[in-house]
Structure formats: C-alpha cells, structure tokens
Design goal:
The chain is built from three helices and three strands, in the order αββααβ. α2 packs antiparallel against α3. It is about 65% helix and about 15% strand. The chain is of the alpha+beta class. It has one domain.
Length: about 120
Amino acid sequence: MLLLWLFLVIFNIFIEKNDYIAQKELTERMDRLDAEKKEYIAQQKQSCLEIYQAESKKWSNVRDWRYVESRDACQIVYKDSEPKTKAQCEKNYSTEGLSGQLFIDVITEKLMCLDGNFAKEF
C-alpha cells in the first residue's frame, strides 16, 4: 500500500511539473506572437506613413493617414474637391442594421464625408 501511495505522489509531481512546463512554453509562445504582431503593426504603420508622404508630394489635397489594423490597410484621407451634402453623406453611409467593426468603419467614413473628406485604401 505504501508503495502505491509513493508511486501516486511521484506520478502527481511528474504531472504537475509537466503542466508547469507546458504552461510556461505556452506563455512564452504567446509573448513571442504578441511581440511579432506589434513589430508587424509598426512596420505597416511605417509603410503607411511612407505612402502618405508620397501621396502628399503628388496631390495637394492629402489631409491625413491612418493604419486600420482590423483590415490591415493603410488609409489616406483627401479633401474632396466636390464635398457631399449632409443628406448625401447620410444616404451613402447609413449605419442601419450594422454592428461591431463594420459599424465603426461606416461611422468613420460618414464623419469624413461630413467634413468634406474621403479616404483611399492602399
């Protein structure tokens, strides 16, 4: 009986040690992936800034830039030479029935429209 108890104790220690090692490896992997994601986003933002600078040299109506992480896209914002009316913006960018990120994206575009701007994605 003592031998069985000793075996179970040793087996339990072995299992706990393996769980600890597995958890540590998982944490390290997640940290590594998080760092890689941050590095990728930083590279994308730098690329987007370079696109903005190039577009600014070509066009006088370039206003702003942003990296949209949810779509992995660079948006360059331009001043619209023929701004839309409020009614046109409301019609073109209706948020009815939308939710989540799509709702946020449409609201953003609607606000740009109301400010007399539009965006182009790269």
